[in-house]
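In the previous chapter we treated chains in isolation. Here, by contrast, the input contains two separate entities that must be folded as one system, with a combined length of 887 residues.
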Amino acid sequence: MAIIDQRLTPDEYAANFRDIHPPFETRDAALVEANRCLFCYDAPCTKSCPTGIDVPKFIKQIATDDLRGAARTIFISNIMGGGCSRVCPVEKLCEGACVYNLMEEAPISIARLQRLPTDEAMQRKWPLFTRKAATGRRVAVVGAGPAGLSAAHVLSREGIDVTIYEKEARGGGLMTYGVAAYKVTPGYCAEELDYILSLGGISVKYGIELGKDISLARLHDEYDAVFLAFGVGLARRLDIPGEDLDGVVNALQFIYDIRTVGYPAVPVGDKVAVIGMGMTAIDAATQARRLGAGEVTLVYRRTEAEMPCTQKELEIARLDGCRIHWLAAPQTVIGADGRVTGLLCERMELGPPDGSGRRTPQATGETFLLDVDMVIKATGQMPFEEMVLGAGVGHRGGKVSVDGAGATSLRGVFAGGDCVNGGKEVVDAVQAGKLSAAAILEYIQSQAPRPAVGPIDPSIPDHTV
Amino acid sequence: MASLYTNYLGISSPNPFWLASAPPTDKLVNVLRAFEAGWGGVVWKTLGSQIKNVSSRYSAVDYHGSRVMGLNNIELISDRPLELNLREIKECIRLFPDRAMIVSLMADNDRESWHELIHKVEDTGAHGLELNFGCPHGMTERGMGAAVGQDPAIARLVTEWVMEAASIPVITKLTPNVHSVVPTGRAAVEAGSQGLSLINTIQSVTGVDLDTFIPNPNVGGKSTFGGYCGPAVKPIALKMLTTIAQDPITRKAPISGIGGISTWKDAAEFMLLGATTVQVCTAVMKHGFRIIEGLCEGLSNWMDEKGFRQTTDFIGLSVPTLTQWEELDLNYHIVARIDPDKCIHCGLCYIACEDASHQSIGIEYGNPYNTYTIKEDECVGCNLCKLVCPVEGCITMVEQRAGPDYLNWKEFQKRGLPLNDH
């Protein structure tokens, strides 16, 4: 047993990582689906979309050959509507609410339809939005993820000059770095980012990390407003013996590698245990299989009824041949010569519901050993607590505290997305960006203009860090 | 099991389904295949003076993903040699003697031409003649087709010429491109035509190409008004049919109903409003002759269910129920009722009523599903909510009479009763 890369042929990698939700092959196929839509009033799908995309309207526009109109309808509510059509857990959002479910009929394939106009718009580079005349106002955004990009796009449309500071080398945030590659490819994320930025008025400074390369104080000082959208990212530790053995990796890093270094270069074990049952756990488990792991076992403390991932995600894992141990808690990572050789798990049983309503798993004392050479931890992400503390904004356990409009405890500093909510869907982050942008606009308009200054040159040392 | 056997002016056919005069009936190979499939009869595509057709010839209206809700054509009468048609008609009759063979005619506008054509056709052994007084394009410019049917005096004259020569039943086919089909229908019947068939196609422009800006069908950059048919025209046809079935003169002539008949249900409706036979074209042009099986089985099963043993048990049954508006009972009042167990919360009833009817549906906002309830006191019983509801049986209309007695508008006025106060 070993953790090795280059397990498959190029064709096998390509087949394993091809688009899991392919678009409609033809216009006719899309029209059949579009014409099934009942065009509901006050539509449940729209109400179930965190960004409130007017779904019946864009489907009607597809059905009547107005793809450009459909694309604008989507993007006006959700500038990452293309990416969201690939990564959204639609079965619990728009498609889950489709009234056809109540007729025991298959819901409208909203996500698949949404791909059509958004893909077309990006491929043809349709300029669907124009900026208002420049106001001379400037906003700094920290983080080029969904929340930051969404806010930047709204602000730029209103004539605000936006500078985004991004610590990674590429924009898109978790869309680019944290999602299974068979849902959305890194290439697509790059195109989506380019399309968003093609509006103009938004410049992105890469490789700049808040608290390290630049301080909030300086941003606060030099911009009319600051929007914090740096997300979450630190993998939660298991705090069990053997966690630091060679072969224990965190899921985010694993997925990050898959998305950055190329599939063949990502090492994976023969037998892999994935701890957790959220979307990230599924993404890690299925991709471990797709990289060529012989056996992948998901280990989860609770039961299917409590799992955070959707049923559809679970089906993907099962179809990929992943095994699942319900009611099993990792107790010790077993190793030899510093490398993982097994995972000792304890059998659990469900006790009474906890504060969140989920039944709490309780130890039974009975254990079993999983024969594995790799352990992937996917038990949630921690906020960037140090960064938040350093920034000096109010927070709760590292999650930035905001009021209803996204304003933090510091005047002129707003925040939204995962850094506030602790980690939700891309679509939630996009909405948070939109709402914060509205609050930022209102705030800026209430303030007297500042003297004009150019964008910060990151090469000038920031002594306030 | 119910019998579909039909006797129309002494012309018998095993079922009331005939193929209308059109491309499916223009040659032996088609007609034999139709008879093999089970069609009760055909009206052979119109014979007359020599013509030349154009390309393209058809255009259609699609609706909400469904193709050919309506079909438009600019094709003319048969462009084949007359002698060939006559030979083939004779052969079809020989091979299928139990099927109705009607031949559609449109001769040049003189007595001799009509007489000559009729004699030649009768020599084939055909069972009946259908006079094409309805073709709306191409022939009208030459004083034929709809040019005859649109003028009762000309229709009467031509029918008289026909009746001088014809020894087999004559059916006059009426054009709908008139204010009322009754005057021409009367003229034809008074001139001796034993039967009437309707409707021919309705003049139309089905659409304009939004890239080339040329209406369709496109014939080398130009288009022309064509004749519209298919499911879209059925309601118009049913209305015109009823006026013929109700008129004291035209109702003496048995009707062959035409206009968008695609299913057995359509056929039953035409027959309930007075058609003895029905003629089908567009549905066959879309799906082929095979649809005859469903037409016959469906009609027969429905007749069994309703206790009708032959078609004459129900032909014209609904005609007396179509009355003048002022005869309608003002005390008849219905209100909508939504079955909450069947409701899928699509809101279509609500928005239709709210924006376009009488604001009689209440909304209770929910996430994601709203709840909709009828305000019975406000509901005028218009049916709109029930019509737009996508779930069968979810919205029903419940009778809540405004008064016990029949009360029509004339009586209402006579009594000086109050009008609505909203």
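Chain A touches chain B through 21 residues (CB under 8 Å). The mean pLDDT of chain A is 93. Compare these points with the single-chain example from earlier in the chapter.
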